[in-house]
Amino acid sequence: MTRHDWSGVRERLSRLAKKRGARRVFGADGHRWVLEAPLSAEELADLEGQLRVELPEEYRSFLLRVGRGGAGPSYGLFPVRHVDGRWHWEGDGADRTSLDMLDQPFPHVEAFNPANPPDKADFDSVEEFETARQEYWEWYETTLDDYRHSIGLLYLCHLGCAHQEVLVVTGPARGQMWAESLTSDEGFWPLRDDEGEPIGFARWYLRWLEETEAKVLRRTR
User: Fold this and answer.
1) Per the domain annotation, does 4 fall within a domain?
2) pLDDT, tens digit, for every residue of 49-101?
3) Which of 34, 73, 148, 151 has the highest CB neighbour number within 10 Å of its CB?
4) Per UniProt, what is one Pfam family of this protein (predicted)?
5) Domain total in the chain
């Protein structure tokens, strides 16, 4: 299977759904192994026109040939929907995508954390550290809601506990899948394969499907 060969994905999901162990797969209660209908070429053009940007090829081919959302890693892919004349993604955490800033370049290529907590080693006394920590948490609450850290990022799914996985739409890492976990002070970082290379949407999705098939088959033997 090549990077953009989505043939058989729906059939594979349908087979998984019928397996006895499928209900125990993490997140399956959320997506129930169902993919929503693909977008038409006209719908995709309208979506990209609203965003003022062309989506990365692997994801846009998925939208056209496989589905607009549903069954996928963790609790599933946030579906893109057209409501009241506007396109948006729906799901727990999907609103962290700033649709007005998707066309602005995400500037990073390496992991970064915009909210680094203070370290005791940097202070001469416990009192100074406690003061800095209090100031940090007051600032941190604001930082979590600052969309400037995630410009050019499309939030595609959540893993629970506010951990998210996102697609870089614009910038030097365009097409890569990244993780975001600001609430646990980990920040943003690129997802990588076994060789340490950043992965795109197709490898991310198909790796999940392959690993899930292997787990379910082991349970049903």
Assistant:
1) no
2) 999 999 999 999 999 999 999 999 999 999 999 999 999 999 988 998 999 99
3) 73
4) SMI1_KNR4
5) 1
